[in-house]
Amino acid sequence: AQKITQTQPGMFVQEKEAVTLDCTYDxxxxxxxxxxxxxxxxxxxxxxxxxxxxxxxxATEGRYSLNFQKARKSANLVISASQLGDSAxxxxxxRYSSASKIIFGSGTRLSIRP
Amino acid sequence: GAGVSQSPRYKVAKRGQDVALxxxxxxxxxxxFWYQQALGQGPEFLTYxxxxxxxxxxxxxxxxxxxxxPEGSVSTLKIQRTQQEDSAVYLCAxxxxxGHSYNEQFFxxxxxxxxx
Lengths: 114, 116
What we know:
A: globular; B: seven-stranded mixed β-sheet; globular
């Protein structure tokens, strides 16, 4: 069965520090995509970064990078130099080629301390 | 519009009432998805349209839930005889292309449904 696991319900980080949000996944499909979304208190899901299962290099988007370890089935999000505006819920998600839908993890609430 | 829009943003219904939630996807987007997000949880898939065709409705929790997209653009999610467990945020997302695992879905702001 396809599954996304986020084991950190909440995290507190000091402003300007780097933070890693954990995500593991389970799928038997060889072709899949991994996503991270940010959901601030306003409720909208904001796309952050994408990693394809066949991509050789880890994805990066500005301050966001995805630490993709295929053998371990992990796709951790790294946020460098955290900012107060990074405080939000973060969801790891997966889409496998045989399906159209995205399945989401339970999320991690990140709080940035000034 | 520039993004996915949903209306209403908030809906309060008495148990047993029918509700209709609207989604306006990004113009030209082929695919449209509905998700249900309970408080404190991640979104869960409800149903998927490719143009006007409903290709996957495996996530609809009961036959009280019905979705349509008759002209391949605007979609409506209807919930009949609402129950308290239907209280959640209903998210709509659209995407431009299909057939690839990379298929960024753009989400709307959601409709928060509260059933009393």
